[in-house]
Design brief:
Number of strands: 6
Distance between the termini: 56 Å
CATH superfamily: Immunoglobulins
CATH architecture: Sandwich
Shape: globular
Order of helices and strands: HEEEHEEE
Radius of gyration: 19 Å
Number of helices: 2
Structural class: alpha+beta
Helix content: 10-25%
CATH topology: Immunoglobulin-like
CATH class: Mainly Beta
Strand content: 35-45%
Length: 186
C-alpha cells in the first residue's frame, strides 16, 4: 500500500514538473480593425470605411520556459455563430513576459462573412486561442469566458484566418511578434 502511494506521488510530481517546463500563459486577446499597410510606397487603395480593414486578432502571452523550439497557436474565431480556424507555429520562443502572436481575416473575407454591413467587430461572438507545445495543450484563453470548450463542439472553417506571413503585414512589426516557423521546402 505504502509503495503504491509513493509511486503515485512520484508520478504526480513528474507529470506536474514536465507540464511546468512548458508553461505558457495567454494574458490578453485583442481584436482590432487595421488598414492594409503601405508597402514600397504603394498608394492605391480600394474600398472605404470598415470594408477595407483587416480583422487582426492579437494575443499577448508569457513564456515561463527558458526556451521552446516550437509553439503552436490555434485560433478559433466565432463570427455570426460560425467558427473560423487558423494555426501558426512559432520557432525559437524564449522566456519572456511580453510576447505577441497575431492572425488576420482579410477585408474581402470579412465583407463576405458579414454581408458588408456594420462594424465587423460587432459580429464577433467569441475568440479562443489554444497554445500547444510538444503535442500538448499548455494554455487556453477566450475573449469572452464561457463554460466548456465550445471550439471542440463545432466544425471550423479553414483558410479564412491567416498567418501574418500570408498577409501584407508579413514584414510589419517584424521584431514585435514571434518568429513564424519556416515551412519545409522540397
Amino acid at each position: 500500500m505504502k509503495e503504491s502511494l509513493v509511486l503515485l506521488l512520484a508520478l504526480f510530481v513528474i507529470s506536474t514538473t514536465s507540464f511546468a517546463r512548458d508553461e505558457f500563459t495567454i494574458t490578453k486577446i485583442t481584436p482590432t480593425l487595421e488598414s492594409t499597410p503601405e508597402i514600397g510606397g504603394n498608394k492605391r487603395r480600394g474600398g472605404n470605411g470598415n470594408d477595407d480593414k483587416w480583422l487582426a486578432v492579437e494575443v499577448d502571452f508569457r513564456a515561463d520556459v527558458d526556451y521552446a523550439e516550437e509553439v503552436t497557436f490555434n485560433y478559433y474565431v466565432l463570427l455570426l455563430q460560425k467558427c473560423y480556424v487558423g494555426e501558426t507555429t512559432y520557432s525559437d520562443v524564449y522566456k519572456g513576459r511580453e510576447l505577441h502572436s497575431v492572425m488576420y481575416i482579410s477585408p474581402k473575407a470579412l465583407k463576405k462573412l458579414t454581408g458588408g454591413k456594420g462594424n465587423p467587430l460587432s459580429f464577433l461572438d467569441n475568440i479562443t486561442v489554444v497554445i500547444s507545445s510538444k503535442g500538448q495543450d499548455v494554455a487556453v484563453r477566450s475573449l469572452k469566458e464561457i463554460r466548456g470548450e465550445w471550439w471542440k463542439q463545432v466544425e471550423g472553417v479553414k483558410g479564412i484566418v491567416l498567418k501574418k506571413s500570408e498577409t501584407p503585414f508579413n514584414y510589419a512589426d517584424w521584431d514585435y511578434y514571434e518568429q513564424i516557423k519556416a515551412e519545409a521546402r522540397n
